[in-house]
Design a protein that fits this description.
glycoprotein, Rossmann fold, five-stranded parallel sheet, about 15% strand, 2 domains, alpha/beta, Glyco_tran_10_C, about 25% helix, elongated, fucosyltransferase activity
Length: about 425
């Protein structure tokens, strides 16, 4: 009850400070309500084509779905990057026997630079990938969690690297090789391998083995194999999870994907030599080094909060998709664009017009949601005028400004249930 009281008090303060609102606020309109699943029976049948783990079916999803083994029986066809090339063919829909009433979804967690799939997205109604501007974003940041605060004294290693894919298109291995002229890098992966994993860190699970090692190092090489926008993978989040400072190279907007002052961005240095000299300085200066760990102590996730508006593919990808089909939520970063398909009624130019803003997607752990104040009909204009810019300030990412104003500023981003003894925390947008 105390938590509910604090939330109500917080809302009262925020609402009392509204300046020149363009709508009338009625107290009854901001009361808490309970949203139950729309339909406990199956609403959509989903056919999954390609290589990858299928999302589990969660009964708490607001819209129910089930998997089918034949594409002809499906309402939704999901094609993954891996295991699929047929979408690249001409007359793809006709060759696959796809009906006009079936919804096509493209799913990818691999970078476009390697697979070149962006040129084919016009064939699909919805996208579900790592990009924040995707219809259904499933960013890698959802794998990020931590449950410990490690003191500097526990770290005996300098720089670690786990790189096993030696093929890249951004010269990351040449950069690592150049760094090796100035600093010692313990390389545990296949690429430039020079260090063996200690016996006491061995584990049948490679992920556990890697994390055991990184926990001992001040720094970890976190170089992506591509520099695609929004393509920030576990290479960043693994060292963050165990208190090792990532030396990152790849996505230029990494600042939007990480806690504040938690990453050393190699993109900002003139050369590998300049970066190496900075690492040597930090190694000898405890005060300067520890500034990269302050976010862990404060629980300050900064811009990462924006990315964590979304759940990961393994838990929520398809559930979010079917809820989107019912206009229960919309990606606030979604770019307003139209696909060249036969399904114009599903094109993004109509997203705002059809979006039911009174019912937003919520975490699957709860059925609680909130009603918004009275609002004007959304017609691609700034509907809300709340002076709440914390969610979008200090970012290099070029989000759609109209959507930011309409959705991010309306829902103050509140972190709930932060407990450093647990492995996960959830970011829940409330009003």
């Amino acid at each position: 009850m105390m938590i509910i009281g604090l939330i109500v008090a917080f809302l009262y303060v925020i609402l009392s400070k509204l300046k020149s609102p363009i709508f009338q606020i009625e107290s009854a309109e901001i009361s808490r309500i309970i949203i139950k699943p729309l339909n406990k029976s199956v609403k959509y049948k989903v056919f999954y084509s390609g290589v990858g783990l299928r999302d589990p079916i969660n009964p708490k999803c607001l819209v129910q779905f089930e998997y089918v083994n034949e594409s002809k029986d499906a309402d939704i066809l999901i094609f993954t990057t891996l295991g699929n090339t047929n979408y690249q063919e001409d007359n793809f829909s006709e060759k696959m026997g796809i009906r006009n009433d079936q919804i096509l979804v493209f799913q990818a967690m691999e970078c476009n630079s390697y697979y070149g799939y962006h040129q084919y997205l016009h064939k699909f109604n919805y996208t579900m990938d790592y990009r924040l501007t995707s219809d259904i974003p499933i960013p890698y940041s959802e794998t990020f969690s931590f449950n410990e605060s490690l003191p500097l004294e526990n770290k005996t290693g300098f720089i670690a690297a786990f790189i096993s894919n030696c093929d890249d298109n951004n010269n990351r291995m040449k950069y690592v090789e150049e760094m090796g002229k100035y600093v010692k890098i313990d390389s545990y992966g296949f690429c430039q391998h020079n260090t063996e994993i200690p016996e006491h860190y061995r584990s049948p699970m490679l992920h556990v083995e890697k994390m055991n090692v990184l926990r001992d190092y001040k720094f970890t090489i976190a170089f992506e194999n591509s520099d695609d926008e929004d393509y920030v993978t576990e290479k960043l989040y693994h060292p963050l999870s165990v208190g090792s400072v990532p030396i990152y190279r790849g996505c230029k907007n990494v600042i939007d994907m990480a806690p504040p002052n938690s990453v050393i961005d190699a993109n900002k240095f003139e050369s590998a030599e300049a970066l190496s000299k900075y690492l040597i300085y930090l190694d000898k200066n405890k005060t300067a080094y520890n500034k990269y760990l302050e976010w862990r102590v404060k629980g300050d996730f900064g811009n990462l909060k924006k990315v964590r508006l979304f759940r990961n593919s393994a838990e929520y990808g398809i559930c979010a998709l079917v809820e989107r089909l019912e206009n229960l939520w919309i990606n606030p970063y979604l770019t307003d664009w139209t696909r060249d398909t036969n399904y114009s009624k599903l094109a993004c130019q109509t997203c705002l017009k059809n979006f039911n803003v009174k019912r937003r997607r919520i975490p699957i752990e709860t059925n609680d949601s909130f009603v918004l104040p009275e609002y004007q009909e959304i017609q691609n204009e700034i509907v809300y005028s709340w002076n709440y810019n914390e969610a979008v300030k200090d970012t290099s990412h070029s989000f759609n400004e109209t959507l930011d104003n309409q959705y991010l500023n309306v829902f103050p981003n509140i972190i709930l249930n932060i407990n450093f003894d647990e492995t996960f925390w959830w970011l829940v947008p409330y009003i």
